[in-house]
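Researcher: We plan to redesign the surface later, but first we want a full-length starting point. Tokens attached.
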């Protein structure tokens, strides 16, 4: 298997920015870094779930994805947000790093383009 690592070409949005916009309703930027990291990992999990085929998603969120009704509600809201804001973005989120630099939230994301479309359309 050949793997090529690339930086985001200038004509595409960085997935770190996409994830921050996607997860915005969850983020309290003044929260401790561990809480921010947890929120972004949860958002990443829901993002990747949204990439499953519709038949798989119709069965609902698997047990263990959410701990309680609040998380399940937030997950459903994020799924709707993904469909509204990023319907054509099929990139899978693989890893992320979250840190603060001079008080500003910084996120670095590793993503994979879908096999059927290495240069997906991001709007």
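Model: Full-length starting sequence:
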């Amino acid at each position: 298997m050949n793997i090529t690592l690339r930086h985001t070409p200038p004509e595409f949005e960085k997935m770190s920015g996409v994830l921050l916009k996607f997860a915005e309703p969850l983020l309290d930027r003044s929260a401790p870094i561990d809480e921010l990291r947890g929120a972004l990992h949860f958002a990443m999990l829901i993002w990747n779930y949204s990439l499953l085929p519709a038949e798989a998603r119709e069965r609902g969120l698997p047990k263990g994805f959410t701990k309680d009704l609040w998380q399940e509600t937030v997950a459903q809201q994020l799924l709707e947000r993904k469909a509204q804001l990023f319907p054509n973005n099929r990139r899978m989120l693989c890893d992320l790093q979250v840190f603060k630099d001079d008080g500003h939230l910084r996120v670095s994301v590793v993503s994979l383009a879908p096999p059927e479309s290495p240069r997906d359309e991001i709007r």
